[in-house]
Each structure stands twice: as C-alpha cells, then as structure tokens.
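Hello again,

I reread your note about wanting to compare the complex against the isolated chains. To keep things tidy I'm splitting this into two emails, and this first one only covers the full assembly. Below are the input lines as submitted, including protein chains and any nucleic acid or small-molecule components. They are followed by the predicted structure of everything together. The single-chain runs will come separately.
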Amino acid sequence: MQRLKQLYDWLDNRTGFKEHLREVLFETVPGGARWRYVWGSTLTFTLMIQFITGIFLWMGYSASGQTSWESVYYIQEHMTGGHFLRGLHHWTAQVMTVLLVLHLMQVVIDGAYKAPREINFWFGIILLQLVLALSLTGYLLPWDQKGYWATKVATDIMGSTPIIGETMKQLVLGGADYGHHTLTRFFALHAGVLPLAVIGLTVGHIYLFRRHGLTPKKPLKKADEYFWPEQVLKDAVACLAVLVTILVLHFAFNGAHLDAPADPSSAYPARPDWYFLFLFQFLKYFPGHWEVLGAVVLPGIAMTLIFLMPIIGKSERGHQFNVGLLFGILAFAGILTFVAVKADRNNPTYIASKEQAAREAAIVKELAKGGIPPEGALALLQGPKLFAQHCASCHTHGDENGLGNPVEKPSAPDLKGFASREYLTELLHPERFGSAKFFGNTAHAKKSKMHDFLQDEFDGIDDDKDLRADMDLLIKAISAEAKLASQSKLDLEDHEAIQKGRELFDEIGCTDCHALGGWNADDYSAPDLTGYGSREWMLGIVDDPAHERFYGKKNDRMPAFGKDEKLTRRQMERIVDWLRGE
Amino acid sequence: MTNENENHSKEDQPDRRQFIKGASCVIGAAIGAVPMAAGVRVALSPLADKEAAEGGAMIRLADLADLKPGVPKKFAIVADKSDKWTRYKDVPVGAVYLVKQKEGEENPVVAFNTVCPHLGCFVDYRKEKQDFFCPCHDSNFALDGKLKNGVSPRGMDTLDVELRNTTEVWVKFQRFKANSKNKIAIS
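Full-complex prediction:
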C-alpha cells in the first residue's frame, strides 16, 4: 500500500494528474445526484463499447467486394468469441440510437439548450447525426443482402438531392456503381473519419458541459453534492443497466444477423434499419418528382428547426414550441414506423422474400464451411441458384429445389449426394430404383432393363448378406469413379475393394450394357460409367445427355444445356461443382 | 471548479460513502471489462489455430532429365491453399531447390526449402561461388546444404524426395521453424 502511494505521488509529481482527477470528480451537482442526469454518461459508455469492439472487429474485417461478407462470416462463425463480439457491436449501436433520443428529449424538456449552452446543444445535434452516419455506414460493411439493398436506397435518396445529389452519391460510392471502393470508403468513414469527428466533438461537448455545469431540474430536492461518488454510482448503475439490456438483446436475437452475400440479381425487399424506417415509410407518400420533398426538403426543415431550438426557445412560448415540436416529430416517426412494420407484416410477398433470403443465408453459410473460392461467397450460391432455375423443374435436391423450396412435380432423379456411396446404395436397391425419387417418373422406370436386372440379380438384398456384400463392392467401385472430395480418404483406403468391385462389375453382367474403365469400352448400350459422377462426366451429361456416351436415343426429355447453349460452360461448372460438394 | 457549497459530502455517513465508492469502482471496472474481454478473446483466437505439421502430399516437380548433377534448380511449389475463409486452388506456396547428386550417391536427388533457416529470407543460388547465399544476413551454405559461415543456426532444410517410375521426382513440401538449432516442422 505504501509502495502504491509512493508510485501515485511520483506520477502526480511528474504529471499533476491528481488535480485534473479532482477537477473531474469533484464537480458540483446542484441539488445532489439524480437518475435523470445519467443519459450523457450512458452514451459515453456505449461510445466506448463501440470503439473497443470496433477496433477488435477491425482486426478481422477486410473491405472489398469479395472479402467483406466472407471476413464477417469468418469472424462470426469461425473465430472464438467472434459471434459475441459482433453481437455486442451491433446491439450497442441499436441501444445507442435509443439513448440518443432519450438524451435529446431530456435536454429539450429541461431547456438545457438555453443560453449559455447553445453551442453545446449544437455539438450534441451534430454528434447525433454523426452517430446516425456511423450506423448507416456500418450497416453496409458486411456486404450482405440487407446492408447492400438498404444502402442502395439510402444512396439513391442522396442522389435525388437537387443539384449536388449525383456528385455526392458518386463520391460516396467511389464511382458510378457499388463495388470495392464503396466498401473501402464506407469503411474509412465508419472506422476513421466519423469516429475521429465523434471523439473531437464529444471532447468539446463534455468540456462545454463542464464549463456551464449541468442544468439542474428545479425544484432542487437536496443539498448540492460532488459528482464523486454519488452521481458516479448512479451513472455506473445506469451503464450497467444499459450493458445488461445489450446482452439480453444479443442473446434473445442470437447475436447480429448476417444475410446471404450481396446479390444484385436477386429480389430482396430493401429496408433500412428500424430507426430509419420512418423516413422510408415517409417516402411512400411522395410520388414522382415530389419525392425530393419527402426525402430531403421536409427532413431538412425538421433538422433545421431542431438546430434552431436554442434561439426559438429564448421565450417560454418558444420553449414550449420546441418541446411540442420534438414530441411531434417523435410521435410522427413512431406512427410511421408502426405503419411500415405493420404493412410488412401483412405483406405475403415481403414475408416470402425474407424467408427465402433466410434460407439462402443458411445455404451459403453451410457451403462456406468447406471454404470460399477467391471470387467470393456469392459464387457458392450460384450452383444452387442455377440448379433451382434450370434443373429443378424436373430434378430435386434432397426433396427441394436447391434453395429450400419444394419442386412441384419432380419427374427426374433426386441429385443430392449424386454418385456418393450413400446415393448409390439407395439408387441400386431393387425397390428404390423405380421409385419417384429416382427413375420412377422417367422412361427408365419399371420397364427398363436396369430395373429388371436389379430385380433379377438383387432381389432380397436386405436379407441376403452375400448379395449385400457384392452390391457394396459394386457401389464402391462405381462411386470411386466420381473422385468426390468428400470420399477421397475412403476411396484410398478401399482401393482393394474397389478393384474387386470393378471385376465383379464385369462378372455379373453389368458390362452387357454399361462400360466401366476398360470393360466394354467400345460396345455399350447404356451410359458409360467410366468416370461416372466425376466433374468431367457430369459436365458431359449436362452438356448433351443424348450423346452416345450417356443415354443416346434413349434420353428422356433432359435438355442438352451446353450443346444447345442454354447454359454457359461456367454456369454448368457451377452447378456440377455444387452437386459434387466442391 | 466550484466547491463553495459547504454541504457537499455526507461525512456523517462514512460507511455508506465507502460503500458507494467501492460499488462505483467495481461496477465501473466490470462494465468496462465486458467489451474489452470480448475483443481480446477474438484477438487471441489465432492462438488456437493448429497447423498440421505433417506437411502436404507428395508433389511431382520434375523429371530426372531436367536436372544436371551438382547444379541446383529452383522449382515453385504450386498447391491448394486455405487462408482463413478462402480456399485457393493451385497457387504458389513456396519453392524448393532440387540438386541432382552424382552417380552412386545414396539419394539421387536432394531437395532444399528455399528459405533461410535463420529468419526466413529467400536464399539465392550463386553459380559463380557454387553456394547458396542468403541476401539478408549473409549466411552461406554449401551445395549439400551445410552451413559454411554466417549466422544461421542450422544448414538448409532438406525435404523428403521420392523417385517414382525411375525418373519422376516427387517432393513433400514442408516449412520449418525459423532460428532454431533443430529442424522442427511447422507445416
């Protein structure tokens, strides 16, 4: 203890910090500590949380069209504690917006903007706008559907400002379109320019606050007190309550949401974050060229009036007007927000789009577990999207269309896990081959040679161990042709069984119709199973299923996607890679 | 600072005041610790990354006929690579020198990782001096990888080589811990 005191004195001797500390702690609180004075401190506290969590998030974030979503996904799903860190940052931002409004209400109701505190009020209003700008810029950074579309709307509003709009929009976006520089600019604003401005103004705000002291609520209830420790405790408890609220929100909503990666080709219902929802709703009442009135002019007038509050509020009447104006704006915003939320809740199209977006987000996160290609996570979704668009009118993928929606009348085999051992175990079962899941709705169904062959050779496979063992060898051999990444280890371990399976393939007569490896290479009447399920084989069958290597003239309705130029090579690769789990 | 008011503190309740002071400090520290701890936990998460130290698969690099006895030749290692969220296919991950040995030697080809075991600079082959030379801290190595002179704690790192089908040179690419006396594989 003695040592600590010595160190304390040594430091004070060199820095004089004791005096400053005293100045901070022993500021007079007229009428004693009160709960109503805590709002400024809670805001400073949330600001501190945002700086700390923001800097740590910065360590994992990478701003570009191909890495923003991906790095946020990685922070969220793969870094220890990343989910909590991002949740904390996100929910603190939400709570901060509420605290800002409460702080503003308190200041206006108590008339704390009146002389000589006008400048401090203006600092506060600018701070309010800076924090909203932080929210707006931060919303885009994950580069997910939600952020992308909302920012598009926000920047288009900016673009509709008369005269300077387009120029400003282009400057903000870093070009004519959304891309790398939109992200780098938003990030520089969000993590550099705006926080610096906030720090500067907050220092000024607190300095001016200290200079003029707080505005006591009359009548004073108690004698004056120092800030320390009574008011400090009240502030600390209030901050604790704020933190608990943030934590409850984080756990109740399972952290911060991350939608599927930004996709300009998808129908996504753009909505701003809840605190801008009223402005969004407001715009609906201003058609055509009146829009600028709702987007820029009226909000601008409201902001100007708020800015002029210290001058308007010089008289008691003026003060009453200010209080009325603030409550009016808040009530109006509240009603608009309510209308907007209610409209969305009763809009089946909106609900369906949101559900679809949630499904796509889940799909892409699942696919991203296997690693994301350098072109970005959006590429991962192209496989299922193209499948849903071009293949799922006939095929299914695990009973759905690849994007989590049912396929109305599937008429071709399910392709989930195609060519894997599990897939073949089911496909080559005598009872299952002709089922609706596989060839049941095609010309290769019950009357086909393949169906008869399975019935003849493998009837009773479920009870006959020898038959089962033979079939397992065949399956291993055929499945190994696919060279599936997910099975590479198994294929390597089972190379003897695979060799036996190949021999059996010939022995039991598969080669009467099919080819495999060297067997029956020149004379086959059913699909050539050499390389069955491999990337090259699958691209081949998508390209032209009626090629003699596949179904030849027996092809049943499957279009030649490549040959007939229905899909590009790249699109076919995306579908095939996705089906193969690559 | 104003403290003209005499009625500031409640010195008549020292216990209560002590409690308020203590509670303020405890709550203040606790609420500050939450965001800080959340951040530090994420910042420390790379420590949990465990790289497998068994190296990648054998890679076919050259044919015996491509190499001249006693003359090092540099080959880039192109392999699949994972970097955090990204999965790359066929990108450069390092390089090796292959040195074909004279007839009758135990190993027909020796492979060296091209980085200096000192601090990881790229080591050059100097034809005129017949050695490997690190341009950073001037260590130089004989063509058999042994340290000739300089500050490197060990000779150049050899890699596993296999000769398949009598002429194909296959190498297992690995990285080793820098600046340690022993050769410890880190990937």
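For quick reference: The two ends of chain A are 64 Å apart (CA to CA).

B.
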